[in-house]
Amino acid sequence: MKKIVEIKNLVHEYARRDSEGNVAEIVRAVDSVNLEIEPGAFVAVLGANGSGKSTLAKHLNALLMPTEGTVLIDGKNTEDREKLLDIRKTAGMVFQNPDNQIVANVVEEDVAFGPENLGVPTEKLEKRVHDSLKAVDLFEERKKSPNRLSGGQKQRAAIAGILAMRSKCIILDEATAMLDPVGRKQVLQAVLELNREEHITVILITHFMEEVIEADQIFVMKQGEVVLSGTPRQVFSRKELLEECGLTLPDAARIAWGLKLKGLSVRTDVLSMQELEEELNGIGVSHGGV
Ligand code: ADP
Ligand code: MG
After folding, report:
1. pTM
2. Quick one: 5-231 is in which CATH superfamily?
3. Domain boundaries, the chain
4. Terminus-to-terminus CA distance in the chain, angstroms?
5. What is the pLDDT of residues 1-24, one digit of tens each?
6. Which of 17, 46, 53, 55 should be mutated for ligand 1, with most atoms under 8 A from CB?
7. What is the Cα–Cα distance from 187 to 191, expressed in whole angstroms?
């Protein structure tokens, strides 16, 4: 099957300039990255601040051009100017700050903005906006001003706008970082449902470990390189490497490691509190003993 994302030897360099405008330093923000993503997958990208996640994300939407290497989105090369609109439509991006993504005064107009610009006819547009608002559970809010929405609702409106364009892939670049725990949960729930029910590819860039436990695959970045990839269980079993990348383990795994260091022979690749509890019951540690 055709990959939705195919990145070959991607390098991205930024030129840092001094006050006179001369190139003072070349920063290699993405360094020889190779990765492939299957259509319909739920993929997470982890990495400390400055590891190159956003730079990589911007290549998926043709917001940046490779210094070296190639990026294919649904088979289309991001350097092909004629495919630009198609690529932006295929891979929709949700950014960190919900307030910067609002373009209209009414929620449903905001959601209609993207597809309208793609030339979707009015009668089709209405149904798309309706369906997209329903999908992210914002239909009741459709007549409101976006400014009156919570942060989580604003991000869901941005996702609805992408859905209304019939995008095959949604990229969330730390889109939950500015939200409270409730908003974060709602946004995550909305994208998980879209992934499972509509088979939309989700690329979730985050530093919240708990959000990536259900991912099909995780890529871990460090200084521009993908240094680790695999299922959540594979990735979170690499405690030392993750720590070198400036990342911490999900709570359950962290507690399991703590118990192991105290001499308990407990599995450390647990992903959720429920798994940890089962493991502890299995080795005869009662709940009250933890
Ligand atoms: P992340 O999203 O993981 O925090 P970024 O992709 O934003 O990482 O940044 C990767 C590196 O590239 C960092 O060293 C950052 O300072 C640098 N960088 C990002 N954007 C620019 C830019 N526009 N000009 C110069 N350097 C940049
Ligand atoms: Mg970033």
Report:
1. 0.93
2. P-loop containing nucleotide triphosphate hydrolases (3.40.50.300)
3. 5-231
4. 47
5. 789 999 999 999 999 999 999 999
6. 55
7. 6
